[in-house]
Each structure stands twice: as structure tokens, then as C-alpha cells.
Amino acid sequence: MSIMVVGSVAFDTIKSQFGERHKILGGAATYFSLAASYFTQVRVVAVVGDDFTPELEAVLTSRGIDVRGIEHAPGKTFHWGGEYGDNLNEAQTKFTDLNVFENFQPRIPDVYRDSDYLFLANIQPVLQKQVRDSMPDVKLVGGDTMNYWINSTRPALMETLKGVDILLINDTEAKMLTGDSSVPRAANKVLEMGPRALVIKHGEYGATIFFKDGSYGTGVKAFRAPALPIEEVFDPTGAGDSFGGGFMGYLASQKQVTREVLKHAMFYGGVMGSFAVERFGPERLQNLTRAEIDERFNLFRSLTHLE
Amino acid sequence: MSIMVVGSVAFDTIKSQFGERHKILGGAATYFSLAASYFTQVRVVAVVGDDFTPELEAVLTSRGIDVRGIEHAPGKTFHWGGEYGDNLNEAQTKFTDLNVFENFQPRIPDVYRDSDYLFLANIQPVLQKQVRDSMPDVKLVGGDTMNYWINSTRPALMETLKGVDILLINDTEAKMLTGDSSVPRAANKVLEMGPRALVIKHGEYGATIFFKDGSYGTGVKAFRAPALPIEEVFDPTGAGDSFGGGFMGYLASQKQVTREVLKHAMFYGGVMGSFAVERFGPERLQNLTRAEIDERFNLFRSLTHLE
């Protein structure tokens, strides 16, 4: 089945203890798409500027990703600069040049209209809702957000959440969204805002999915997937979006979404996130094989399973 | 088989968002012993003061714990006061009245000499080493330490670590001990200091065990156990020590210590830690049943296992 993602395609300038990179390919939709492309047909809705070269677009198309929804607007592409200190879980933002992204109005190509799955990457909640409302027939909607929207556009975000089936956020965002310092309590509160399941990403400690009663069948109420203990994290940028791509991509490759399927999706999310951080930018996500992905899946299994 | 633990038996005065308790039973050896008592015969070496009543000692003896190694010294019992804010992973220490614990000289009763396992709870590294050296025939030595000893008595601690088979510490301590901000890299460095395996406790995110090459057979190089997503953490005091008690107690109940057995021990550690935080102090650890423990073990399994 096919999945449509709306979000940023951008340039990143990144510094970590392992070096720096200037204006490399980045953006949530980029990481998401590349990660999801190993599981299903991916379609991107985004905006880039004049400086976005055909070579960069080829990074996506060579993975079979449909880029007809990437608008080329006059001006420069969104450019983010960040630095990682000792705490690789948190980037220090150096600059955010929104450029053409500032006036982004998602335009959905007609050929995308039959998409089965939809992922609303981290953009303005109002735009997320517009896109979601214009795709009433999708089978499942995943979504992301961030502290900035939680603080500055809460009412709009609350409206958006009503249309999101599975929300993927991190610990800090879950606490901020609910005003509750306990992650499990916060999870329950988020599940009252609309989503039928909530994935909370814990960075190097993995991620937990919480299910609303009766959603996606029965079974466990929560499930934890590990992250790989990686000695050399080159660049954590995009780890969460790559998790999202592996998670949603795997879901879209399955006939039905049950709690059992969602448990496996959590593992595939972790797997794709673990690949993403091994190199700067989305480099490692560009030429994986399904065998490498499955091998790492088995490593995740051996890392957590008693038998 | 039997396990001997040396550490603190103390009073705790605790405040969390759920209330406060004045001078309740606490101390690392207390939590450790109670948790381990569900798996094996436990013997305690500690010191208390005149104010330590028979009723308090009965909390231990009623669980079959051997307290003949608890010295009653003139003076007051060690008393710790702490408060938990929003971040339940970290206590703010209000006071530390060492009292009789300040001049603690562990005295090992002759009847303890045949103990099969030894756990060096968090006390002065010099004392840990003395106890360890005086018990040359134990099958396995577990140990704990804390930031204070890492900073102020590093040379002594390094000597102690050479005699510890399995060290149990938390993320912060691992980073501090090695000066490395990456937990997996820090783990490798600790394994070069002596221990054959290292358990790093991640608080609400569970714990990871790292194996030195060739130690405890072959198999996985690391294994992660979850923590339960508990909505109402009443009091995190003693969670780590209860983890240690479940972990070491389970090991001592097995014929052989292999990586497979250690994986199960990680789960039992998490299980006992999860019970400890459900009530103030060690209350919940006083009257569990093995059925309750196994039920929670299965919950941990369903929380992490795909099938």
C-alpha cells in the first residue's frame, strides 16, 4: 500500500563531536521517506527553493519515492543549523532559516489522492489538519509535532489531534502536551485527545507504544521497543523521523493493523532509527538492503527477548 | 544457595508528590535483602544504633533474612532525608546523618562464611574490598557504588572493582566513572576495569547488561530489560537496590550463571524494582507472593516480546 507524507525537505548544517557537515540534505519528510521506502510506496508533499538541485531530488527518486508533490518555489530552501554536545539526545539550534517553508501551503497532487496511509510530519498544526481533512479516505493517519506548536498553537493542535490515529512524540513533548510529569500518566491523557495509540520515543532508551482501550484489537496495553546501544552515534539528526518512517512504512506493508503488527512496527521503527544515526545526515538510509534491515531486526530481538 | 549483603540499614525521611514519611525503614541492604529473600537465603552485614527497634528487625527476620551480622552500636542509626520533585529519577538530598554508619567496620559472623554469593552494596570502596578479600571462596561478587565514591576515592574504587564480577550502577555513574558521555562506550571501559558484566540501570527506562567477551558463556553482547510504565510512582527510593536484590537473588537460586540466566535475572531485577516504587519505603516488598512476582514477570515479557 502507499503512504503520503507531508513535511519538510530541507538543508541541515550539523556539528557533532565527530565532525561537521554544511548544507546536507535533511528535513523530517526526507528521513521519513527514505526509511519508509524499504517497506512501501512513498509519496512526498513538501516545498523546496531554487537551490534544491536535481542531484538532491535523485536521492529520493532513486529509492522509488514519488516527488511530484514537492513544490519548487522561488527562493531558498529551509535551512536548519544545529550542534550536538555531550547530550546527543538534544540538539542546540544555531539557526532556523525557514525561507520558502515559511509560507508552505501543501498541495496534494491528484495522483496522491488514493494514498492508503498518511503521515503528518512536524509542521504547523493548522496545515496538518487541512491535509488530513482533504484526505478523508485514508486508512490510518500518523502524526508528529513539537514543543513550539504545543506552546504557541495549542488550540489548533488539539483540533489536529482529533484526526490523528497514531501520534509519535518524545518524552518531553508528551509531558508538555499534558502538563503531567509522569510519562505513563501523560500517555493516558494524550489518548483522550483523539489518538487511538501513542508512540513515545525515548531516544537512546527506545520507545513505548500505549494503546487506547479497544483500539487495534486487544492484547497488551503497552509495548516497549529498545534502541540499539550504539557506541558511535555520529549524528542523531533525523533519528525520530526515521523511526516514524520505519514504523509507518511497515504498517503500510501489512494487510491489517493489529496490536501484534504494531509491536513489530515498533521494532522496525527502532531499526531504521538506529541506521540513521550511524552516519551524518540520511546517508546510511540511502543504500540499505532488506537483508541488512532484517539482520538488525533480529539483533533487536536478541537484545530484548528471553528466548 | 545463600547470598551475603553488606550495606546500609537505615532510616529514611522521604517526601514525594504523594505525601511524606518520617523515619521509616530504609537503606540499600534493607531493600536488597527483602527483594532477594523471595529467591534465596539472605544474610545481612550492617550496623544500626540504639534506636533500631526489634519491630524493625522483624521486618527482615519475618522474611527469613539472617540478621546476625547486623551490629547494634551505641548511638543513632544512619538517617537519610530526601525529596522527589517532578523528576522522580533523582532525589534531592535534604540531610545525611551518618551516625553509627560513619565508623562502620563490617564484621562477618562465622556462620556467614560459607555464603555462595556476595553483594557489596553502596559503601566505602575500601570496606567493600576488605569484605570481598575476606570472602575468597564466593562464587560470584556483585557490587554497587555512587558518584561520591567515584569522585572522592577513585583509586580505592578501582582496586575494589578488580574483585567485582558484576557491577550494578546507573547511567550517570557509568559516565562519571569513565569520563565518557556515551553509555555503550562507557560500558566497554568499565568492563576493562575488572567486572565481567556490567548492569546499567536507566530508571524508568529499564536496564541494560553488557557482557565482557567470553564471560558467562557466549551469546548476546548486551541485553535490555524494561521497566514497567507505572502511573503512580509513590516513592522511587530503593528501586535500584531492589533491582539488585531481585537480580542477585535470582542468580543465587540457579545452578549455574550463564548469559541466559543473566537475562532472566535482569527481568527479575526489573520486577522487584517495580514493586518497590508502588508504596513508600520497602512496604510493598514485605508481603509479596511468588505468584505475584511471576505474574509481573509475565507482564514484563508481554511488554517486550513480539510473540
If you had to describe this structure to a student in words, what would you say it looks like?
Two copies of one chain form a homodimer. With about 300 residues, chain A is of the alpha/beta class. Chain A contains ten helices and 13 strands. In chain A, the strands form two sheets. Chain A has a nine-stranded mixed sheet, with helices on both faces. Chain A has a four-stranded mixed sheet with strand order 3-2-6-7. In chain A, helix 1 (about 30-35) crosses helix 8, helix 6 packs across helix 7 (about 185-190) and helix 9 packs across helix 10 (about 290-305). The longest helix of chain A is centred in the C-terminal third of the chain and has 18 residues, at about 260-275. In chain A, about 50% of the residues are buried. The mean pLDDT of chain A is about 95. The interface of A and B includes residues 187, 204, 208 and 223 of A.
